[in-house]
Amino acid sequence: MKISTGISNIFKINKLKSVLLIVLVWQIINMIVGKDYLVPSPFETLQRLLDIIVNINSLFNILITLWRMVFSFLLSFIFGIVLGVLSGVKENVEEILKPFVNILRSTPTMSIILLSLIWLGSEGTAIFVCVLIVFPIVYTNILKGMKNINNKYIEMAMVYKVSNIKILRYIYIPSIMPFLISSISLGLGLNLKVLIAAEVLSQPKYGIGSMLYNSKINIDTSAVFAWSIIVILITIIIEKLVLKNIKGANNGIF
User: Which residue numbers delimit the ABC transmembrane type-1 domain (predicted)?
Assistant: First the structure.
């Protein structure tokens, strides 16, 4: 217990040192450039960050982006799991979906955003783009998990007439779970990045991306930095909360 606590404290100290080093380098660059409208100081950015956080309109924009992120990721997640499992069970389904998934992987994100703007307008673009970008990640990981299942275990379960529920619980879920966690870890961060980019280009009425674009138009660089920090913090918090809950649920199942 003492050893694990000591290691945990060391990691926390190292993280703090990394943050302080980043702030120091940031301040040095600010002093070298000498123009706050190009590179604002950490203190100026912190002030702008606090102004954004206490502003009700800013909080509403953050909530709208979070709603888009959750909704789009859930769609990607559901489609990815369902089609990944089907492809793992039926080889012909995998062959049918393979060209489609490869096209989604290869198509530039910018092309998808521009086409979505033509088809769906500014409000629907962000969600549609996120689903198309994140779906291949979830699908591929689930498919790998399905192929990771040892068929001998399933055959043995069939011989001993084990119920389908127990086969699902003790064979399928443990095999898929590491790949599921990996897809969530990779997908969540990418989902938010793509969403912000789509919002910046499509400029919906509300959203963090729209606020970033407005800050750029007004040459408010400190606001651009502040909004970027908000996105980073949101990504870290969500990933930690989601992955912690999934691992807890996983431990509870088994």
Answer: 62-242
| Phi, psi angles (nearest 5°) of residue 104 | -65, -40
pLDDT at 61 over 90: yes
**Number of domains forming the structure of the chain:** 2
127 and 20, same structural domain? Answer: no
Could you tell me the residue range of the domain that residue 74 belongs to?
Answer: 37-253
pLDDT by residue (tens digit) across 108-122?
Answer: 888 888 888 888 888
| 12 and 64 both lie in a single domain | no
In our burial notation (b when 16+ CB lie closer than 10 A, e otherwise), range 197-211 reads bbbbbbebebbbbbb
Specify the pLDDT at position 169.
80
Enumerate long-range contacts of 172-175, CB under 8 Å, 24 or more apart.
173/253, 174/254, 175/145, 175/146, 175/148, 175/149, 175/150
Structure tokens at 80: 């990815």
Same domain, 82 and 28: no
Q: pLDDT category, 7, cuts 50, 70, 90? A: very low
